[in-house]
Write a structure and sequence with these properties.
Layout: H1 3-7, E1 11-15, H2 20-31, E2 35-40, H3 43-52, E3 60-64, H4 70-84, E4 89-92, H5 107-135, E5 138-143, H6 156-175, E6 181-188, E7 191-192, E8 215-216, H7 217-229, E9 234-237, H8 241-249, H9 254-271
Parallel strand pairs: 1-2, 1-4, 2-3, 4-5, 5-6, 6-9, 7-8
Helix pairs in contact: 2-7, 4-5, 5-6
């Protein structure tokens, strides 16, 4: 079976699908013949994104859902499975960034990022697993981050949620390996998406730059879907970051991370951003 055949005619839900990695995953899935339910919170943005993919109108559906509300997530997933007759893939992709000095973060900041980045994933998995257990198959793909496998200074809020997603998904990958349900964790580094243009409250700041080394989202999506089709557990992109992760795990990268912290502190003082 080719990677494209892995997705052909499959029922997929993608959250955070109206922009960034979520949009690119949706587009690639549609190109490979999948039936995609694009999920997002803002009706206008979701509809606009769907219109851009109108050539696939016979295989694209839209779902309006606030992923921080358990009842909405449950209804969206259960209704999709009932309508389509099954659920092959769930891509828990919705999320926000969070870059700030720890001492400036409020408890409301902590609650917001945990609700969006972590609880939304829990809600999705909590609903999808019983459906997939009943049908005897399925694949759940949760978007974490490179900040979910090694430390990133000035991203303690973000890192907590992404480490949570990574650990949660990896645990379930082994727990359900004998039950026909696959789990994958996406751990991207810098990808050229609107997340870099948004402040923590969601407002767009055009003057914030996208990092020069950021990979185009469509390129990232192809790489991710190829690895998902191969049932890879932790999907790191760009691949060079795997070496950094391994260096951190074996404890030979402390000086590098200390230097990174210093450089980010200086950059944050001067520009209000770490890059």
């Amino acid at each position: 079976m080719t990677n494209s055949e892995y997705y052909k005619d499959k029922i997929c839900i993608v959250t955070g699908a109206n922009s960034g990695i979520g949009y690119s995953l949706t587009e690639k899935l549609l190109k490979m013949g999948a039936i995609v339910y694009m999920a997002g919170r803002n009706p206008e943005k979701v509809e606009k994104a769907a219109e851009q993919l109108s050539q696939y109108s016979d295989r694209i559906h839209t779902i309006i859902v606030d992923v921080t509300i358990q009842e909405q997530v449950q209804k969206a997933i259960e209704d999709t499975a009932e309508e389509a007759g099954r659920l092959d893939f769930l891509f828990n992709n919705a999320g926000i960034g969070g870059t700030m000095p720890f001492e400036t973060a409020t408890l409301d900041d902590w609650k917001r990022i945990i609700d969006i980045n972590l609880w939304s994933v829990i809600y999705g998995v909590h609903t999808a697993v019983p459906i997939m257990l009943k049908q005897g198959y399925g694949h759940i793909v949760n978007t974490s981050s490179a900040a979910g496998i090694y430390p990133n200074s000035f991203q303690s809020l973000y890192g907590l949620t992404k480490y949570g997603v990574t650990g949660f998904t990896e645990s379930l990958r082994y727990e359900y390996a004998e039950m026909g349900i696959h789990f994958s964790t996406i751990c991207p580094g810098n990808i050229a998406t609107p997340i870099f243009k948004k402040s923590f409250d969601g407002s767009v700041i055009d003057e914030l730059p996208i990092p020069d080394d950021a990979i185009p989202a469509d390129q990232a999506a192809k790489f991710i879907l190829d690895r998902v089709a191969e049932h890879e557990g932790v999907i790191i992109i760009p691949e060079e970051l795997r070496k950094l992760w391994q260096a951190y795990v074996i404890g030979v990268a402390d000086d590098m991370f200390l230097q990174m912290a210093h450089e980010r502190r200086q950059s944050y003082k001067k520009k209000g951003t770490y890059f």
